[in-house]
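Support case: user asked for a sample of complex input and structure output to validate their parser. Sending the pair below.
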Amino acid sequence: MPEIDIHDRPALLEARRLAYARNDEPIFGPLDFVLHAGEVVLIEGDNGAGKTTLLRVLSGLLEATSGDVLLDGEPLTLAKLSHQVALLGHQPGLKGDLTANENLRFAAGLGGVRAGISPATALAGVGLEGFADVPTRELSAGQKKRVALARVLLAPVGLWLLDEPYANLDLEGIKLVNRLLEMHARRGGAALITSHGAYAFTSGTPRRIPLRGSLREIPPAGAGQPGVPR
Amino acid sequence: MNRLTLWFHKIGSPPTFYRIAGALAPWCFGIAIALGALALYGGLVLAPRDYQQGDAYRIIFIHVPCAWMSLFTYGFMAVNAFIALVWRIKLSEILAMASAPIGAAFTFITLVTGSIWGKPMWGTWWTWDARLTSELVLLFLYFGVIGLYAAIDDKRKAARAASFLALIGIVNVPIVHFSVNWWNTLHQGSTVRLMGPSKISGDMLWPLLTMALATHIWFFASLFARTRVGLLELEGGKDWARDVALADAARDETVTAHG
Amino acid sequence: MKPGTTLAACSALIGRDLTLVWRRRGDALNPILFALIVVALFPFALGPEPDNLRRIAAGVVFVALLLSGLLALDTLFRGDYEDGSLEQLVLSPHPLALLLACKIAVHWLTTALPLLIVAPLLAEMLNLPHAVLPVLLTALALATPLLSLIGAVCVALTVGMRRSGMLLALLVLPLYVPVLIFGAGACNAAQAGLAFMAPLLWLGAGLVLALVLAPLACAAALKISLS
């Protein structure tokens, strides 16, 4: 079965002349891009370039100063979005006094569970199999990040917004994130991740959107070409 | 109706409002001072002594208009807060935040003059009667709005948060009034109604109303001045603000050159 | 894919918050301790004559519980804000107002209910006439949830501010005054042999209104604060 070209799939998320300013200081924008199902897009920028702010605007927490965000062709509202997006923010979103398992079970209760996965299998999927009953405050920063990734894995949503997913992770962790992103893209989901650009997507280059400097979108590499690690 | 909405849009644009407010403010200050002086002369000199309270009652010519203004200002602030929250109009945000300190000042004057009035009557500087107590709570409401606005760095978010608080407050104002009245009736004792006889003679009425008008105009004058500053702060990066700053700098240069 | 039901989400949230309080159950004693200290200070300040204390007993107990509640308000959202859970609540597909109502309910259960249980002891320390005690407890049972609900709206406005203690006190004070007037006023009226049902009914009406409106206001305030 021939694979559908990525740009023939319906657009999941679209940003038109999106801009955000705080206290009259422009943070980012105007930005135009389209995210299709099955795509992983990397938002690059240095510290302070506005990557986190952009994700918060796309997740519905912040309202853009100008421009539009469209979800499946319709203007974005928090109500619509919450059913379809999982956000991994700067903080892991986990309670320190609860065990990893309890945190994941709470997330499952709050947001529902994807079919075919459970808190236990999610923990195994991020390499934390024996850590189900460890209080989260006793985990290292990298381990907390993995539990947060497990939470994203559990969520029954198509769109992942991950802010600095590689932060605090060792080389194994970075490969894990990339594996999870590829799996999610293969099953028809989409992901938008931010990074300084220091860690590359090692198999296939994701589309890159730089947030400072040139606002020209860099076109995606053709299928099958090896990615160029920085 | 189209022309009216167009006119509103024009007024609401920061540079236009800045210009209009700048032109109107000095006039408003002048008229307010003139009317205020007239009212004070009428109240302090012309009006006859009160049958019960002698000369001490004369403080009402300041106390009562200020009390009216403290409530009017809160209402004005709340209306603008509502507009700011629902339609996110920058000018409304600034008008709401600029009226808070003015309202607080009027409330403070109300409290001080009320307390001055109380001293010859009951020998104490403070009395927990219904109006003064309500005004005290109102002062705290104003302080809350001012404090919350000052505590947040992002000024548009700060205005939204403080506007929300102002709206909660305005629901609270009648509740506080009602509860304080009830509380007063429960604890009868040294509390006596501060407002004198309900029938007020014509000689006392016109200075009161004149002062009320003067305080209203003063409010707008002060509001215009504060809003201009607020607009410049909020729109500092925009071209119109830079042009204003450059024009002021050029004017100062010519003044020093010729001075 | 199966998103959770709203009922499941609420029970998950209530269960989580109760578990968290249980894991730190030592901290739950703090409001009680504070109220005890406040009440104990009054005899030292005013002298131990029973008649003196009797006159102020209801009011002092009310103020002590109000202040304890004010101190405890900070914990309502702070933990969730600092570890990012609050954002996840806002982003969840369930009505935020309902989720916040659950949080406020658990908070009242774990901070104010213990105070209600201790209230008879506090009243006894100040020689409150026994006939007034039922009125005091009723008034407190109506007033403390009201204080929690109103306080939650104000905490939502200041969430994330470091050292927001004084600002929070300033914000809640004008809103707390009517509650205190009616609550303590009912007790004072009962103590003086006057009718006391009216203020209690006003408190009840306020509580019903707050139960509906406060979570909505809290959600709106939270969205402003997190933006």
